[in-house]
Specification:
Strand order of the largest sheet: 1-2-3-4-5-7-6
Order of helices and strands: EHHEEEHEHEE
CATH topology: Aminopeptidase
CATH superfamily: Gcn5-related N-acetyltransferase (GNAT)
Strand content: 25-35%
Radius of gyration: 16 Å
Distance between the termini: 37 Å
CATH architecture: 3-Layer(aba) Sandwich
CATH class: Alpha Beta
Largest sheet: 7 strands, mixed
Shape: globular
Number of strands: 7
Length: about 190
């Protein structure tokens, strides 16, 4: 599929913003990406809706303008991809957030959706939230490090053999993205 339509980005910051249609699209995407071998939290496919639904519901309940928010990318009303930005409420760590569950719907792979998600999360973290740094963890051996590095992220370390998976243990790769400092207050607002 080629991106001939405009990709729309939306931030969901409260549970009320996740209606039944969006919730179902998140569920289908997470299930399908997991079953296609994606490193998004369910390492032992196949997974069903019943496996994924509790995680969707917990994520939606955690949404909070001050800390957690979901970024969705849609094209012509269809979910093209999404991620979770998880901030910190403590003053000690409020200057950074974690990027979790980065996913591109299978029908939108190789269209630039992942890169667009990473650009928007970086923009929002800098301009809207005055964060100084983003962090993420990546499963080694999936070819993901190169993608994130091409988006400006850098590897800062690894937890050797941290992930026990069928076929062998894998490192967990720790990555960071330094953001431009803003003059405004630090932390998620």
């Amino acid at each position: 599929m080629r991106m001939t339509e405009v990709l729309q980005m939306s931030w969901l910051t409260t549970p009320a913003m996740v209606g039944p249609r969006v919730r179902n699209q998140l569920l289908e995407c997470w299930r399908d990406v997991s079953n296609a071998g994606g490193a998004v939290g369910f390492p032992f496919p196949p997974v069903s809706d019943e496996h994924v639904l509790p995680s969707i519901d917990a994520m939606v309940r955690s949404l909070d303008l001050e800390v957690n928010r979901i970024l969705i990318a849609t094209m012509d009303g269809e979910l093209a991809g999404w991620l979770l930005l998880a901030g910190n409420s403590s003053e000690l760590t409020a200057h950074w957030a974690r990027v979790l569950r980065v996913q591109t719907a299978l029908n939108f792979r190789n269209c630039g959706v992942g890169r667009a998600l990473m650009e928007e999360v970086s923009r929002a973290a800098t301009e809207d939230l005055s964060l100084e740094q983003l962090r993420l963890e990546v499963r080694a051996g999936m070819g993901l490090e190169g993608f994130y590095q091409s988006c400006g992220w850098r590897e800062i370390g690894r937890w050797p053999e941290a992930l026990r998976l069928p076929g062998g243990d894998r490192d967990e790769v720790l990555m960071t993205l330094a953001l431009k400092r803003n003059a405004g207050p630090v932390g998620v607002r």
